[in-house]
Backbone:
């Protein structure tokens, strides 16, 4: 949440608002740059959106939080107003990011949009490991610290290995990721 990162978030929301106005009546996709695309087709995205205003990527498998790194937006008045509210709330809460603000709006039902969550084929690392065999995209999130970019590169390498050598890669990545996952699980149980 450096000042540079907060400026990027503010710029992202402004650009989203501009794209909604510039493409009014159409559907647009907003994607972070740490996403690798696989089976992604416009007609499939529109089908996933259905009659909703927005289709969000899931943050986790079992929690209804959204991930704002990949969104399908119907450019209409409701979505324009929603992102105006997001921008206003970011201004009131500079220590938060847009994903936090969107989740808060959704959870408090202070929204004027109809939204849906994309299936797990639109995968984020925060959804766990391994990802499903059939992927529309992979979002290399869940990175922190000074080597965040290197962590994203490692995720893409692990994913490439997994897609090429599924069984061997599952064994390798289990050994790599299991200790941290077990520690998190034990920590959650002890905190209850």
Residues:
């Amino acid at each position: 949440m450096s000042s540079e990162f907060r400026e990027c978030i503010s710029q992202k929301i402004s650009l989203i608002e501009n794209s909604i106005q510039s493409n009014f009546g159409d559907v647009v996709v907003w994607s972070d740059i740490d996403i690798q695309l696989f089976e992604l087709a416009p007609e499939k995205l529109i089908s996933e959106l259905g009659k909703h205003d927005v289709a969000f990527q899931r943050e986790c498998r079992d929690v209804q939080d959204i991930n704002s790194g990949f969104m399908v937006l119907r450019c209409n008045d409701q979505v324009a107003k929603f992102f105006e509210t997001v921008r206003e709330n970011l201004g009131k809460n500079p220590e938060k990011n847009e994903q936090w603000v969107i989740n808060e709006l959704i959870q408090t039902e202070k929204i004027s949009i109809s939204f849906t969550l994309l299936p797990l084929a639109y995968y984020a690392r925060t959804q766990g490991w391994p990802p499903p065999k059939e992927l529309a995209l992979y979002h290399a999130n869940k990175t922190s610290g000074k080597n965040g970019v290197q962590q994203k590169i490692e995720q893409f390498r692990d994913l490439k290995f997994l897609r090429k050598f599924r069984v061997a890669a599952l064994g390798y990545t289990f050994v790599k990721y299991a200790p941290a996952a077990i520690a998190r699980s034990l920590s959650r149980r002890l905190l209850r």
Remarks:
- Residues 143-191 form one domain.
- The chain has a mean pLDDT of 88.
- The beta strands are 27-31, 35-37, 54-58, 66-74, 115-117, 122-124, 137-139.
